[in-house]
Amino acid sequence: MSLDIVILAAGQGTRMRSALPKVLHPVAGNSMLGHVIHSARQLQPQGIHVVIGHGAEQVRERLAADDLNFVMQDKQLGTGHAVAQALPAITADTVLVLYGDVPLIEVETLQRLLAKVNDKQLGLLTVTLQDPTGYGRIVRDGEGQVTAIVEHKDASEAQKAITEGNTGILALPAARLADWMGRLSNNNAQGEYYLTDVIAMAVADGLVVATEQPHDAMEVQGANDRRQLSELERHYQLREGRRLMAQGVTLRDPARFDVRGEVTVGRDVLIDINVILEGKVVIEDDVQIGPNCVIKDSTLRKGAIIKANTHLDGAVMGEGSDAGPFARLRPGSVLEAKAHVGNFVELKNAHLGEGAKAGHLAYLGDAEIGARTNIGAGTITCNYDGANKFKTVMGDDVFIGSNNSLVAPVEIKAGATTAAGSTITKAVEPGDLAVARARQENISGWKRPEKIKKS
Ligand code: UD1
Ligand code: CA
Predict the structure, then answer these.
(1) What is the C-alpha to C-alpha distance for residues 46 and 167, in angstroms, rounded to an integer?
(2) Distances (CA, A) of 46 to 49, 168, 390
(3) Do 314 and 297 meet the contact criterion of CB atoms below 8 Å apart?
(4) Could you tell me the distance, in angstroms and rounded to a whole number, from the CA of residue 194 to the centre of ligand 2?
(5) What ligand has the least distance to the C-alpha of 152?
(6) Other CB atoms within 10 A of residue 201 CB
(7) What is the mean pLDDT of the chain?
(8) Does 126 sit in the ligand 1 pocket, CB within 6 Å?
């Protein structure tokens, strides 16, 4: 079976009250349309056709990719009209229709639906709802066979009592599509060309309409306003939280946990409240993450500990290393095994060797730091002269005293020591002590100035 997928994304989304086209509004850090495209790709179709209209340029710009065919629908004359715009580009034998504002649809559900389609049958995804107001209703005959979909606004009172609603998602044999599209009319309550009218046409042509339902009604829930968007967000997060818990992660509170990307986890991982994981995050066994941490595009090796309020972006934390509370590891930060970074330490493009320590209040940028080296509190690498960046290199077992300014480019070689308060501008040879500060002078019998009396 070859497959073409049509994603409808031309609608305005007035109720979002936003300059951003509706389908670009994010769920879990990715646009709603981005989620739908991600699911579509997993079905390995020969074409993905995205029907755009409102905010078309923004949508195209944001999501452009080689495997996407954007189709313009200048006027939104209805879902049937939207699919018809994609018709010339369809070459496969099956067409699946998805919606750019229905982001949580599961690939497994779509596979079940697609399994129903052949040249004698189409697949329709329906959902039974307590309150189906607004949905097209699935009309069945005495034998339970689907005969039509009636839109809410066109339905009789008896039809409105039907609780089985149309999700909009359907899969049909492409060979019939051109004929059915050609026969659509807009003679209905909304004056639109309804895609749903193809159901009655298919039945009249002797086809069977086979239905499937999603396991979870939220899969087919669209977002028309920001309240619905927030419901989709929480649902996505709960689903993601459950997936991680099933793999051996303890979440202190799944309702206070957010994933905005792709996370892989090991076993016996502990994640405290208000943690946000963004982009690609790899978490190995026995990692512990404290409360209020933001971790983006980072790798946490076995047993790493991230303490409260720590921010990681593009960092690698080695086995048994620890960071925080209140540490910031920026892109290119690498901690080797058992390295330690304490409170109010900022790292950028800095490599800390095994067991190296920066316990408090430091900025280490563009730095290569050897094993077991200890960085005193208040130390900074002066890596930037206002125009260019330079590197600071420290060997193994170096001891940097408190409150040092290390003016790059500079090298402090293995086993060297620098005195507290030093401004280091020259290389320090192995084992040497560098003292680079004014010597202390004491003046005995010093008289403090006295206040001058006003006459
Ligand atoms: C549609 C279905 C209804 C179903 C409901 C589920 C039809 C006629 N009705 O109704 O049976 O229960 O979805 O939510 O199909 N769109 C376009 N171009 C258009 C019109 C719509 O791209 O010209 C897109 C919209 O952006 C939206 C989707 O199609 O993503 C659905 O359109 P909408 O007008 O919201 O359909 P409903 O009236 O809700
Ligand atoms: Ca409509």
Answers:
(1) 24
(2) 10, 22, 50
(3) yes
(4) 9
(5) 1
(6) 16
(7) 97
(8) no
pLDDT digits (tens, 9 = 90+) for 200-253: 999 999 999 999 999 999 999 999 999 999 999 999 999 999 999 999 999 999
pLDDT of residue 31: 98
Question: Is 231 in a helix, a strand, or coil?
Answer: helix
Give residue 1's pLDDT: 86
CB atoms within 10 A of CB 334: 21
* Residue the block writes with tokens 């020259």: 426
CA 193–ligand 2 middle distance (angstroms): 10
Question: Is position 152 annotated as part of the catalytic site?
Answer: no
All CATH 3.90.550.10 domain ranges of the chain, comma separated, are 3-220
Asked if 50 and 9 touch (Cβ cutoff 8 Å), the reply is yes
Catalytic member of 25, 152, 340, 360: 360
Q: Check if 82 has its Cβ closer than 6 Å to any atom of ligand 1.
A: yes
Give yes or no for residue 194 CB within 6 A of ligand 1: yes
CA-nearest residue for atom 21, ligand 1, is 79
Please indicate whether residue 136, judged by its CB atom, sits closer than 6 Å to ligand 1.
Answer: yes
Contact present, 301 and 284 (Cβ < 8 Å): yes
Which CATH number applies to 3-220? Answer: 3.90.550.10
* Domain 226-434 of CATH type 2.160.10.10: yes
Of 205, 202, 269, 257, which Cα lies nearest the Cα of 233? 257
Relative to beta strand 333-335, strand 357-369 is unpaired
Residue 145, token pair as written in the block: 């066979």
How far is the centre of ligand 1, averaged over its atoms, from the C-alpha of 6 (Å)? 13
Please count the CA atoms within 13 angstroms of the CA of 277 that sit on its side-chain side.
Answer: 28
Binding site membership of 81 for ligand 1 (Cβ less than 6 Å): yes
CB 68 within 8 A of CB 51: no
**Mean pLDDT, residues 62-80 taken together:** 97
109, amino acid identity: T
Q: Are 369 and 350 in contact (CB under 8 A)?
A: yes
Q: Is the pTM of this model over 0.90?
A: yes
Q: Is 407 left (phi over 0), alpha (psi -120 to 50) or beta?
A: beta
CA distance 101 to 226: 12
Q: How far does Cα 127 stand from its chain's mean position?
A: 28
